[in-house]
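User: Here's a protein and a ligand (adenosine monophosphate). What would the complex look like?
Assistant: Let me lay out the input and then the predicted complex.
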Amino acid sequence: MKVVKNISEIQRICLDYKRAGKIIGLVPTMGYLHEGHLSLVREAKKRCDTVIVSIFVNPIQFGKGEDYDIYPRDLGRDIELLTEEKADILFAPSVREMYPEGYSTFVEVEGEITSKMCGASRPGHFRGVTTVVSKLFNICLPDYAFFGQKDAQQVTIIEKMARELNFPIEIVRVPIVREEDGLAMSSRNVYLAPEERREALVLYQSLQHALKLIKSGERDVPRIKREMEEMIKSRPRAEIDYIEIVRAEDLAYIDKIEGRVLVALAVRIGKTRLIDNLLVEV
Ligand code: AMP
């Protein structure tokens, strides 16, 4: 696997690939890779001739007081994992390479889709995400870009951005990869102390409870949210950031379960903010 840190170099390589008619797949990540990330790489390998994985801890998507400085990083291990998966190129630019002195161009999807849920507790987060993803699209010229359903709001926003800015790129959603006990894999899970790790399971458990209620015919959104809330509040280290049940397509608020629905939540376990979600269709 080739490791590239320089934008002009990777852009030249990608232009050559495109001229040769190769299908390029891009997997954007912040590194500290786990099976969730690797499932995106495997999906990309299936569909594309060339798979580029980017690793970039994007400072502009972190708010003040968030975990940018302590975000886990291990490029050596990531390179080993990606080599095993036969990724073709790792693009790992520096912050200065992506945002040189004086940088001032941003891409923002406006409206409720970005201001609610994770957008409400992390102002500016999605602006940072859509900006870096737009840059990566222009740098790597992918035909397909792969994103995890784990970050359901993020991928919905990116799909809207790609559509509205006419990026000729197909956005592929990859299902959530979980630990054996159900906890969604996340680079941030390393922050959890053993007791917190046990309590973190409540995110998955509350989603499963919502699924059971919906399957048994419950359609009332406030009632389902209330039951999830009670379950989470019973864990002493858990503090709810949000629980939302929205239309999957555009994340619009709903009162009744109907069609494709996203049940999504963010919960702080101690100091660690975790997210998870579930897609249901009735
Ligand atoms: P991150 O490095 O956390 O920014 O994630 C990079 C990509 O991997 C994003 O598209 C995430 O949605 C995806 N991802 C992270 N965790 C998982 C998971 N457990 N299952 C599937 N995809 C994931």
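Summary: The domain at 187-277 is CATH 3.30.1300.10 (Pantoate--beta-alanine Ligase; Chain: A,domain 2).
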